[in-house]
Amino acid sequence: MGALRQALIEEMDRDPAVVLLGQDIEVFGGAYRVTEGLAARYGSRRVRDTPISEAAMIGAAVGAAMTGLRPVVEIQFNDFIACGMDQLCNQAAKIRFMMGGQVAVPMVLRAPCGATGRAAQHSQSLEAWFMHTPGLKVLMPSSPYDAKGLLKSAIRDDNPVVVLEHKMLYGGASPGGKAKTAVDSLGAAYRPAPDEDYLVPLGRAEIKRPGRDLTVVATGLMVHKALAAAAELEKEGISLEVLDPRTLAPLDREAILDSVARTGRAVIASEDVITCGFGSEVAALLADRGLFHLLAPVRRVCVPDTPIPFAPALEQEVIPQVQDILRAVREVLEASA
Amino acid sequence: MESLKALDKGLVERMHEGMLRIRLFEETQSRLFKAGEQEGFTHLYLGEEAIAVGACLALNPDDFITSTHRGHGHMIAKGGDFKKMFAELYGRTPGACLGRSGSLHIADRGIGMLGANGLVGDGNPIAVGAGYSIRLRGTKQVVASFFGDGASNQGTFHESLNMAASFDLPVVFVLENNGMSCGTITASVCKVLQNLGDRAVAYGIPGENIDGMDVVEVYRTVGKAVERARAGKGPTLVNCQTFRHHGHFEGDIDVRTPQQIKEAQSHDAVADFEKRMLRDGLATEKSIRERRERIQALVDEAVDFARGAPKAPAADAMKFVYAE
Ligand SMILES: Cc1ncc(C[n+]2csc(CCOP(=O)(O)OP(=O)(O)O)c2C)c(N)n1
To answer: Would you tell me the crossing angle of helices B9-34 and B285-308 to the nearest 10 degrees?
Structure first.
């Protein structure tokens, strides 16, 4: 969360048109503390608490973006974007298109995603909803380095950008909650964000670990689970490539095809539900344009078609784990023998 | 009705001119649409002209408006160009939105018209955002947000009024209360419809209930609200009682009885205003006829322009999905 805060600070220093809107961001510092201290630094005009009105918050960001500001809206959980979905999908995403390019809508919507024991209405990963709406860009960083560089690019981008931040990757607890964080167990791929001003370009995937035998296309927290699986399999002489798209829309299709052309096999690991999910899109891409690279069927490791249950054992059951990736990889390798 | 003599003569003429521009544009559009010359949907503003004209005369050219599915009148009143508008309605390249929006999303950023809108109630939050942007950029602009009685039951209405009120934003919410929501008489789904301006009390802002058929009353009331907004004192809700002359959209089934439709059409803001102008010596039969003829010629010229303009090419279908 320090990296995200640093990105906001650098961009707010750089451009007075950047303003923050959200619930509990001003006095309280944000549900995940990302905006802590920013109201003191920039004043309550640029860092503004809003009523609990997701439709008006997102709609107001559209109006502000059309008329000269670059608003960054924080929604407390990505699940709540549902309340403002109309504003996001019918207004933000389409206005430039409908108006024949007369306006741009440079706004950012940041929201936490992913399961951390908060049950069905605070645990979803809704990236596919947004990927399904042309006009939106969708980002999902997996490290502080990417989070800072991507958020800075998002703020400078002239399109509405949805940034989904996995709760386990914030590196801290939300107040009152138990310290649900994966960060302590992550290795070098949880790359820190340097203080300097740098951008991570939108629409560009990154290979987090090169490998020979199989590509795991993984997003957000699943990048780290895929890396853990890769470390495990290395002991058996199996070499996984882990590809992190970072931007889910527009998707870096060429990078995925390139990787699978080299490895011949693919597993897709994401935390959204399986039907019409992120994995469906990548699998369809491989069927469309990568079929002759493939030595075995593609497997998706994601959430089955269910809401996320509360009890830890139940949540664990439906959220994909390292074991699930290992199993899928082994199945694919066997199928291609 | 009150005498017009106390008003500036130029203002009276602009009121008449503005209402006639909408009336003649829309009557012509009705004929063209019924003749099958255009695709899509067209919701006409006929009957409600006094609201858009009175309100927009109280605005500056660089002020903003947000509009509705019934947006032609708002755009014309804000200074919309007939040629760009008809070209848009015909889906032609010189259209205000290059033929990409048609009637439902017609917009012109250059005149501060932030868009007609296919979603009932969605203009309000956008107006709040434009107001927020005005506040932060430190300009003295104002936003007028037009919407219907049907829209006043959307959550966006409540969210927007509360947010604009608590942030003291320079937004005037102009409610066009024609008592109809598509094929539903709004009173059957809304307990208190008559004085919707009273809802302002709930948000701690001024609310007005006025005769939306009287362009002078609209101009004065909205003008006061605009002044208040420009002075940084926050938003106002203005409920304007009005009448929709045509069906919900052209070609739609009208759920009103023929009697009810006739009654609605008997309230005519343009005819009433002309009578007042004649009575008060601010116009003659001849001057009114000449003004009508001049505007109709502009309308006809714009229609010819649109008919002859190049169709939006298929190759451009996916342009502007993303900004570069
Ligand atoms: C969100 C949404 N729901 C429903 C519709 C369908 N619809 C279009 S116009 C309309 C009635 C709107 O009534 P009102 O706001 O009073 O405006 P009027 O048509 O009377 O000008 C409806 C229900 C829509 N366009 N958007």
So the answer is: 40
Cβ of A59 and B118 within 8 Å? Answer: no
From B181, B255, B256, the mutation candidate for ligand 1 (largest count of ligand atoms within 8 A of CB) is B181
Nearest CA, atom 22, ligand 1: B182
**Quick check: A174 pLDDT over 90?**
no
Contacts of B189 (CB under 8 A, 6+ apart): B153, B181
Provide mean pLDDT across the span A56-85: 98
Q: Where are the beta strands (DSSP E) in chain A?
A: 18-22, 47-49, 70-74, 108-113, 137-139, 161-166, 206-209, 214-218, 240-244, 247-249, 266-273, 299-303
Distance from CA of A318 to the nearest CA of B (A): 35
Q: How far is the CA of B48 from the centre of ligand 1 (A)?
A: 16
- Å between B33 CA and nearest CA of chain A: 21
Has domain B9-303 been given CATH number 3.40.50.970?
Answer: yes
Q: Which residues of chain B have pLDDT under 50?
A: none
This model of the complex carries an ipTM of 0.91
pLDDT at B22: 98
Partners of A53 on chain B (C-beta within 8 Å) are 159, 162-163
Span A117-123, average pLDDT: 94
Position A184 pLDDT exceeds 90: no
- What type of residue is B20? L
Structural domain boundaries of chain B? 9-303
Nearest to A59 among B122, B143, B320 (CB): B122
- C-alpha triplet A124, A127, A129: angle, nearest 5°: 95
Atom of ligand 1 nearest to the CA of B152: 15
- pLDDT of A337 above 70: no
The pLDDT value recorded for residue A172 is 66
